[in-house]
Amino acid sequence: MVVYGGDEIPSIVIEVGTHTTKVGYSGEDSPRHVFSSVVGTRADGKPLVGDLSLSRAVENVEIESPFKSNGDLEKVEIFENIVRYALEDLLRVEYKDMPVLIVESVLFSKESRHAIAQLMFDKFQIEIFDIIVRYALEDLLRVEYKDMPILIVESVLFSKESRHAIAQLMFDKFQVPALYLVKDSVATCFTSGRSSGLVVDVGHYNTKVTPVHDGYVLASTITSQPLAGYALSNQAIHTLENELNLNIVPSFKVKSKRPVGLNEPADYDQVNTMVTNTFHSYHLHKTIEDFKACVLQASESAYNEVFLSQKPNKTYEFPDGFNTSFVTERYRIPESLFQPKQFLLPPPQDGQAILSLPEMILKSVNMCDIDLRANMLSNILITGGTSLLHGVTERLYYELTNYVAANKVKISAPSSSIERRYGSWIGGSILGSLGTFQQLWVSRQEYEELGVSIIDRRCQ
Q1: Could you give the CA distance from residue 100 to residue 121 in angstroms, rounded to a whole number?
Q2: Are residues 158 and 60 in the same domain?
Q3: Apex 195 CA angle, 411 and 389, nearest 5
Q4: What is the domain-level CATH number for residue 436?
Q5: For residues 150 and 11, is the Cβ–Cβ distance under 8 A?
Q6: Domain of life, per the record (predicted)?
Q7: The CATH number of the domain where 235 resides is what?
Q8: Does residue 18 contact residue 204 with C-beta atoms inside 8 Å?
Q9: Could you give the CA distance from residue 36 to residue 48 in angstroms, rounded to a whole number?
Q10: Tens of pLDDT, residues 129-147
Q11: Exposed site from 73, 93, 145, 230, fewest CB < 10 Å?
Q12: Is 408 helix (H, G, I), strand (E, B) or coil?
């Protein structure tokens, strides 16, 4: 078997997350490029990938994500375009001769893992995923990725079918020489220098709690639910539009604006381009993400409106120039993470019982072997972009110590926003640069001789 990677041949590290795609080289401390994990499809069928391409109003463009609402991979063609853009337009590498390391979600199914392997070795046949990957490789990295191994960071939520589809895409369509899929929670542990821990990933579509022991995911103990950034964004939209009667104007609709006073009507010129509902929704959520980062904060303890109404307010200016102050709303929206039954709006459509973030952690810990529980509680690793909301980590510690003795709970949360947002990618970068890792690459020869099932045996 040919050995890829190491000091002589660098590898490419890709993570297609439900919110953003991260791409770069092993051994580097942060990704080279980060962009939204969506693809715009025009009426003529030509895909639009990358934040710049999607930043301006374009008629008849539908915005699609490659993921299901449960975090598993659904539209592989979008995945392909994302990866191709990353390799050919961003990194600009000849990837056929380079190993590829993919950081995958622990929720990816076995089928998803097989799809990834077949994609990379054969012909990139998963469509939306294909578009995203293509953009990352060709438009951003601009590398000859056919000469480079590729490591893909995959979600623990990926199904077996999704993993197989990605593998087939990378081997068959991208023609990469070697590939590896690493689960995002395992990669997060590597970032913190651990082989074991309880990874709490508060991401975009899902929050997932994953026990990792000696470098392996304890799959039967994973807890996941759609209480994360996207749910908080929907709650913020519901609060602003339905409770405060505010009209949220996304930035793409603002041609120019003029300053106005606090709570005065916006004075702006509007872009009149007609766009699809998915395009409008994509930009509306972009606006709300900025609002969340600037305004929202988790209360130090259980929500108390009388007490919190005395806190300092926070003023925010929307893209159209309208600006106003927020007080209790700042705390009420994030409270959904800790008391979803009382505060989550709109409520779940299917009547599903939603657990709070502390309840998810305790559920996963209690599903572990009794000998591992103390170790998990003392090695809680917080990651994911939504965990960066002010006060979330401190509130989580406060809530957990109501259930467990304080001296038994230890939470590690990087102070750096880069490590918090890109922790799993950084872990993949570390893994791909280790000399001891090089024997784990799945080579093209092995894929052709043993089939996509080699992914399940090698990339556990």
Answers
A1: 10
A2: yes
A3: 30
A4: 3.30.420.40
A5: yes
A6: Eukaryota
A7: 3.90.640.10
A8: yes
A9: 11
A10: 788 888 888 888 887 778 8
A11: 230
A12: helix
Residue 426, SS3 per DSSP: helix
Q: What residues are paired with 20 via a beta bridge? A: 36
Indicate the helix (H) or strand (E) that contains 180. Answer: strand 178-183
Q: What is the pLDDT of residues 346-376, one digit of tens each?
A: 776 666 778 999 999 999 999 999 999 999 9
CA–CA distance, 430 with 153 (Å, rounded to integer) = 12
The half-sphere exposure of 193 on its side-chain side, counting CA atoms within 13 A, is: 2
Q: Is residue 438 part of a domain?
A: yes
Q: Collapsing DSSP states into helix, strand and coil, what is residue 222?
A: coil
Rounded-to-integer distance, Cα 130 and Cα 383, Å: 26
Residue 232: both structure tokens together: 């908080």
User: Cβ of 418: how many Cβ atoms within 10 Å?
Assistant: 14
48 residue type, one letter: L
Burial class (CB in 10 A: 0-12, 13-18, 19+), 323: middle
What phi-psi label fits residue 214: left (phi over 0), alpha (psi between -120 and 50 degrees) or beta? left
| Host domain of residue 111 | 12-188+423-458
Please check whether residue 1 lies inside any domain of the structure: no
**Reduced to 3 states, what is the DSSP secondary structure of residue 191?**
helix
Asked whether 126 and 64 are in contact (CB, 8 A), the reply is: no
Q: What is the model's pTM? A: 0.88
57 and 184 within one domain: yes
Question: What letter does residue 242 receive in the DSSP assignment?
Answer: I
Pure H helices in 296-346: 305-308, 328-332, 340-343
DSSP-derived secondary structure letter, 74: -
Number of domains in the chain: 3
Residue 75 has a pLDDT of 82
Instruction: Convert the pLDDT of each residue in 67-93 to its tens digit.
Output: 887 788 888 788 888 887 887 888 776
Q: 261-275 as b/e, with b when 16 or more CB fall inside 10 Å?
A: eeeeebebeeeeeeb
Partners of 79 in the β-ladder = 127
Per DSSP, 67 falls in state B
Residue closest to 298 by CA, chosen among 360, 226, 230, 357 = 357
Classified as helix, coil or strand, 24 is strand
Helical residues (DSSP H) of 356-453, grouped into ranges:
357-367, 373-377, 392-400, 417-433, 444-450
- Exposure of 287 by Cβ count < 10 A (0-12 exposed, 13-18 middle, 19+ buried)? buried
DSSP string over 358-383 = HHHHHHHHHHS-TTTHHHHHT-EEEE
Two tokens, residue 373: 């529980």
Cα(337)–Cα(354) distance, rounded to whole angstroms?
A: 10
